[in-house]
Structures are given as C-alpha cells and as structure tokens.
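Technical note accompanying the year-one report. For the benefit of new consortium partners, we illustrate the data format agreed upon in the data management plan: each record pairs a sequence with a structure-token string. No post-processing was applied to the example shown here.
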Amino acid sequence: MRFCKLCMLCIFCRSFSYSGPRLRRKVVSLYESFVSKSLKECFFPAIIEKIIFFNFWKAPFLVDLKKPESWIPHTVNFYIKPENGISLGVWHIVPKSRGKEAKGKDRSWYEAALQDGNPIIVYLHGSAENRASCHRVKLLKVLSEGGFHVLAVDYRGFGDSTGKPTEESLTKDAIYLYDWTKARSGTTPVCLWGHSLGTGVATNAAKTLEERGFPVDAIVLEAPFTNIRDAAINYPLLKVYHKIPGFVRLFLDALTVDKIVFPNDENVKFLSSPLLILHAKDDKTVPIERGQKDDFRKAWRDLHELMLSEMSRTRRSLYTSTAILYDDQF
C-alpha cells in the first residue's frame, strides 16, 4: 500500500516538471520527505545488504563445492567454524608443482603442506557468487601455477557457508581463516588478497590484526575502492536511480545506519604491512579512480620502496612474483 502511494507521488511530482520553480520546489521537498521516511523505514533496511553483498546470487548453480577437483586439481575442500552455529566452506589449492604428490591425499596432508616454504595467499572474493565462480577459479589456477598455496573462503551466507553476511561478520571470517592459517604455516609468510568488496574485508581484517600487534605479512588489493559510500555512487545497479530526487543520499545514509562502511582509505593509514594494489584501467564496476586517491598512492610508493630495500629472500619473492605473475597473465 505504501509503495503504491510512493508511485502516485512520483507521478504527481513529474506532472509538475514544467510548473513554476516555487511550486516545483515545494512538490520536490514533499516528495523527498515522504520518500525519506518510507524508504528508510520499509524499503532500504530490507534490501541494502542484498545489494551490497549480493550473496543470494549463488552462481555457478547446481555445483558440488565439496568436489573442487572438478575445477582445480590438487585441491581439497574443508570447513571451519569461526563461531558456534557458523560453518565456512574453504578450498585449499596447493602449488601446481606439488600437484602429482597431492593426488589422493587427505586434509591432514594438505595442512602439513602449509609448512613447505611456499608462500600462502588467503583469497577474499568480492560480492555475489561463490568460490567456484569462473573468474575466481582462473585466478586461483594462476596463483597455484606461480607456486602459491591458496585458501579461498566463502564468507558466511555465500556458497555453502551458513549465517548472514554483515561487514563485521565478513571481517571476523577473514581474521579467523588468517589466524587458522598462521597457526599451521610455521614461518611461511601469509598474504591477504582481497578482490573488489573483498578489499574492504582485507583491510578491515589487517587493521584489526595490526591493532592486536600482529601485522599481516603482506596485503594485495585487487580493484579496491576508497570506501563503500564512494563505490556505491558508481555501482551499475544504482546508476539508474540517480535521477530520482534524494535517492542516492538516502541510499548512502542507509549504508551508515546499517554499519556498512568498508573504509579502505582510512584503514590503509594504519597498516605497516607491505601493500600491493592492482587495478584495471577499464574497470567499469569499480573505476580505477576509486583506487588512486592519496592514501592508496602513498601505499603504492611505500611498497615500491620496500621492494627495493634489503628484505629477506622469502618476502621479496612473495611480493615480486605476485606482481609480475598477475600483470603477465591478465
């Protein structure tokens, strides 16, 4: 009923598009006031998380995530429990060089392999779909071919993982998997790799770990944004609503109310970890400008200086090979 009233008001407002400026301003003001109350109370709270996380789109469909070898050989599926009642699906892909050795091995062998000295990447994907998504599988294969262990997780509410996604819960999931990995990897470096929305998860997790006194060994941000408010303005599904008076403002305000911030630009200010930023110039979903603001430029300079400085051989291999590998393949 309330939605019908909103539609009627939209038509009424449009009918005054050629009226005098004073009358038009009053009608628009009335319209915005009505929309603000109706959408904030009844509409936005119900859909805001779905738009941001898009976890209901569980493509590819009709797949068995428990059998990752259908997509990537030398891979094992397992589940972790960050808290009671929550189960997260994870794939562990070993370096391709150990592919033959991994054939037929169980989870315990894969866990022990984390101490073989090959660097480890905890992969944090973006919104929608699951860890079997085609473009994600392609990247996982490339990283495996480059000599990396990769742990790819579906956050709660994604894929076959249970629970409901929120910014806080996704951050907890990432921290739990990172801690789980560090506890089993010995002295092997572990890198957080976030893609798109996952960059916000990665920097949130890295900042929390930094505050605990355990900075992440390295961070890779693929197609990052400054913060979710900034990214939402350019979100393709939102652009069609830009001409509706007050809609964008209401949408952005609702993000804050729902505590969805993902402040990459603020988080990176506190990080001491080496940071690599990857972004395509023709990215239409998250424009490269979203990853080129001052704090990200500084992070890139810091990483460049770090790579040129005297570092341990293991660390230099991790950062340099990641950058070259990804640049050559895509």
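Partners are asked to follow this layout when depositing records. The longest helix spans residues 21-53.
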